[in-house]
Amino acid sequence: GLCGGEGLSAPGCAAPAAPSPAPPQPRSCSRQPASREGRGGKCRAVHPSPPALLATWGGFWVMAAEQVWFHLSGTVTEPATATEPEMTYKVAISFDRCKITSVTCGCGNKDIFYCAHVVALSLYRIRKPDQVKLRLPISETLFQMNRDQLQKFVQYLITAHHTEVLPTAQKLADEILSSNSEINQVHGAPDPTAGASIDDENCWHLDEEQVREQVKLFLSQGGYYGSGKQLNSMFAKVREMLRMRDSNGARMLTLITEQFMADPRLSLWRQQGTGITEKCRQLWDELGALWVCVVLNPHCKLEEKSCWLRQLRKWGEMDVCPLEDGNYGNELPNITNALTQSSGHSQDSLARPRRTVFTRAIEGCDLHWQDSHLQRIISSDFYVSPSYQREGESLLFNSQGQPLWLEHVPTACARVDALRSHGYPREALRLTVAIINTLRLQQQRQLEIYKHQKKELLQRGATTITNLEGWVGHPLNPIGCLFLTLTEACRLEEENSSGFAAKAEQVHGKALVLGVHPVAHVLDGDESYLSLALEVALMGMGQQRVMPEGLYAQDKVCRNEEQIIARLQDLELDPVLVQTLRKQCILLLEGGPFSGLGEVIHRESVPMHTFAKYLFSALLPHDADLAYKLALRAMRLPVLETTAPSGDVTHPHHLVSVVPSRYPRWFTLGHLESQQCELASTMLTAAKGDMLRLRTVLEAIQKNIHSSSLIFKLAQDAFKIATPADSNSDTTLLNVALELGLQVMRMTLSTLNWRRREMVRWLVTCATEVGVRALVSILQSWYSLFTPTEATSIVAATVMSHNTILRLSLDYPQREELASCARTLALQCAMKDPQNCALSALTLCEKDHIAFETAYQIVIDAASTGMTYTQLFTIARYMEHRGYPLRAFKLASLAMTHLNLAYNQDTHPAINDVLWACALSHSLGKNELAAIIPLVVKSVHCATVLSDILRRCTMTAPGLAGIPGRRNSGKLMSTDKAPLRQLLDATISAYINTTHSRLTHISPRHYGEFIEFLSKARETFLLAQDGHIQFAQFIDNLKQIYKGKKKLMLLVRERFG
C-alpha cells in the first residue's frame, strides 16, 4: 500500500478538497507481508531493497505508469517462463490519506493480500516518482475544456471502449436529458480521482469476501493440511495491522470471528457433548486474546468500542459459543476486579456461571485509560513520587518513589499486551516496570504476613489458596506478556546499540546512547530488562495456585509452563541474572502459602516439578545447596496422599497406584507424575558420587513418588548412569538403583503389572552388578520381593547360572554360599507353591543330596493334594532324564491317578505321557508294568490308546532298562496271562462301548471311517485265544441291534461276513 513514513496511516495527512498545486505524494510502504504471482500462486517477499525495481521483482516490467491525483494506473508485464508465456496486466490503485482504498488487477487472483502486480506498481511509484506522470483530477481537466473539446473527449472515450461503456453512456445521457431525473437534482458530478472529503471515513482496502472464504476453507480442513498454521498466520497479520495502527485490523478480526462462529462443528460438538479439538481450542483462545487487545486500544473511539461490545455480546450469547475453559459453573474473578490477593470478595461478586472466550473482551470494554496515574506511568520516563504525598498517594508509589499500578494482575498485563499490540512499545515497557514493582511490594507484604502465621500454619500443616486463578495458563497469559515485553526491549537495545555505535561519536558521544536505553533510569543498581524478565517469570511460575477444572484448562497450565521455561532456557545467565535467580529462589522457599515452593501448600495446589527442574539445573553450578533444597521441596505431590490434613507434608500417608476420587479430576495427573520423575532423575544424575545427597534424594523419591512404573524408570536411569560403558561403575548410585528396584518389587508383589517379569529380571541384573552380598540379600528375603515362581524360575536360576558366576569372578566359598541360599530358597518356594516350584526346586538342588531328597519328598507329599497330572508327568520325565527311573515311575503312577481319558478323547495331550509312563514301566520290569496297568485301565477309556499300549507291551520283553540287581528273562509277555490279560479285556470292552456310542449318532459320511475302526477292533479281539469267536458274536449282535441302518450293515457284511 501507499503510506506515510513507517506507519500505515498518517492522521494528519488529508486529501485536498479542491485541486491544488501540491498534489499528494505517496511515500514508502511497509504493509505487505507477502503476495502471490499472477498465475502460479507462488509467494514472493515484498520488502524490496534499494536496487532497481525490475531486479527486485523477478523482472516485472512496469510501463505506462500514470497518476491522476489520487488514482494510480499502469501495466505490469510478467516475463515468460519455461511453462508460461509472457503476460501483461492492467493495474489500477486508488488511495486516500496515505492508504490504499481499492485495487484492481487483470490477473484476477483472489487473496487477502495484494497481488505481486499491485505491489510492483506501488513500489515503482515510490522508488521512481520522477518517471510517473502526475495529473490533476480529471474534473479539473474537464473544467478546462470547451464544449467542442468535451464532446470530442466523450465520443473518443466511447469509441475506444464502446463495447464496455456504450450502454452506461446511453443511460446517463437519457438521465441528463430528463429534467426530473435524480442525476439532475445533484449539483456537480463525482470524480474518482479527486479523493474523498476530509470527513469521509477512509481505511485500507480489504477484500472482505476473500477473507471470509479463506477462513471458511481453513476451518473446513479441521486443522489438517497446515490450515492451523494458515489461521495463525492470519491472526499474526491482525496483530501486525494493529501494531501499525491500521484500522482494518479490527475489521479483519471481525470477519474471521464471524466465520469461526459459523463453523458447523460447533453445533455438532455441542450436540454430542464432546469437547473442541485441542488445535481448534488454541485458535479460539488466540481469537479471544486478540479481541481483548482490540477493545483495549488506548486511542479507539467510544462509538467503535460500543460497536465491538454489541458484537461481542451477540456472539457470547449464542449457544454454540465456546466457553473459556470448557466447563460451566467456574468461579473466576472479573477482569475489572481489583487485586485478587485480598480475600474480601464475596462469592456473589466472583461467580461467573458462563464465561465464553469473549467474556474477557466484553469485560475489557469497561476499562479505560483516563486514570491520571496510569497516564503518567505510560507517558513519562521520569514519573516518580512527589516529595509531599497527599492522602492515598502512598498506594501509588513504593518506598523508592517508583510508581505502582494496583490492578488485577492479568488485567494490568492485558493493558501491556494492548499497548504492545497497538504499536506503543515504550508505553508498554513503562507499565511493565510498574507492574513488576507492584508484584515485588506484594511479595514483601506476603512474606511479612507469613512470618506472623508461620507457627500456626506449620502446626496445622494446612493452608488455603487465595489465588483463584493462576497466572500460568491464564487465558490472558500475563507472565508471558510481561516476559516478552522485557526481552523485546533487550533485543531492541542490542539492535540499536549495534546500529548506532558508529554514529554515537558524531553526536557528542551521549545523546544517542541515552536514546538506546528508554526508561533505564527506573532500574535499580545492576538491574536490566533481562533480570526483570527473569524475575517476573520466576514470580509467576512460583505462584501457589489451585489446579483449574477441566482437561483443557489443566493441559494449558502445563503447556504454558513449558513455553515460559523454554524461553528462560534461552537466557544466558550472567552474574546479574544469577543473583536475581538466587534471590527469587530464596523468596519462593520462604514464601509460605503464597508460594508453590513454600513449606506448606494446599492439597490441590499445582505441582512445581517442571519449574523446579529448571531452577535446579540453572542453580546447580552456582549454589548447589540451594538447588537441592529447592528441588527436594518441590518433589511433593500431596494430591496423591490420603485424606491427611490438607498441605500436611511432614507425615504423609502414601497410596500405591491409587488416584483418590475428587472433583474436579486431575486429567493431567499422569503427565505431572512423569514430570516429578524427571525432576528426581535430574537430581540423581547430578548427585552421582555424593553419598549424602544421593541418600537424601532417595528418601524424597520413596516418600513422594507413588507410581511403581515411574520408580522403576528412575531405578533404570540410575543404573544406566552408574554403569557407563567407558569407565568404572559408581557404587553409591548403583545402591540407589538397587534400593529403588527393591521398592518396586515390594509395590508390585501383590498387584497385576504387565512389566513384572521385566522388573524381576532387571533387579537380578542390578544386584549382580552391585555384588555377591546384594544377591545373597535378595535370595534370603525373597518372600517380601518375589512370588515363589519368580524366585525359583527367574531369580535363583539366574543367580546360579554360569554367566553370573563368571561375571562376579566368585571364589569357591562365595559360590557355595550363593548355592546354599538358592537351595534354601528353592525348598521354601516348593513348600509354599509345589505345583509351580517343585521342578525348579529339584533342578536347583541336584548337586546336594539332602536338599534333593527333601525336594523330592515335597513333591510326593503334594502329589495327592494339589498337583495335576501334567505337573507330575513333567517332574517324572525330569526324574527319568536325570537317571531316577524308579522315582520317575512312582511319580508317573501318581499322575495316572489324576487322569481320566474318555472313549472319544483319542487326541488328548496327555496320551503321550500315558504311553511314556507305560513304556517306562515296561522297561523297568514285569512288576512295575503289573502295577501301572490297573491304573491305566481305570483312567483310560479310549480304545485306540489302550490298543496302542497293548501292542507296544507285546513287541518287546519287559525289564530292558537294566536296573542293577534285577534279572531279565528276555521273554515276550503273553496276553493270556497277567498283567496283559487285564489290559486286553479292558481294550476289548472299550472297543465294544465305543462302537455302541459311535453308532448312536453316526451319519452316512462317517460309515467308511467306522468300518476301519471295526477293522482295528478285530485286530485287538484276535489277540485273545477265543478272539475270533468273540468278534463274530460282536458283529452278529451289531447286525441285530442296528438292522435299521441297512446301508451300514451291508458294509459290515461285505467286510466281516
Automatic annotation (TrEMBL):
GO CC terms: Cul2-RING ubiquitin ligase complex
Pfam families noted in UniProt: ZSWIM4-8_C
Sequence ranges assigned to domain SWIM-type in this UniProt record: 89-126
Keyword Metal-binding among UniProt keywords: yes
Residue numbers spanned by region Disordered: 1-44
Keyword annotations: Metal-binding, Zinc, Zinc-finger
Lineage top rank: taxon: Eukaryota
Molecular-function annotations in GO: zinc ion binding
PANTHER family to which the protein is assigned, alphabetical: ZINC FINGER SWIM DOMAIN CONTAINING PROTEIN 4, 5, 6, ZINC FINGER SWIM DOMAIN-CONTAINING PROTEIN 5
Protein name: Zinc finger SWIM-type containing 5
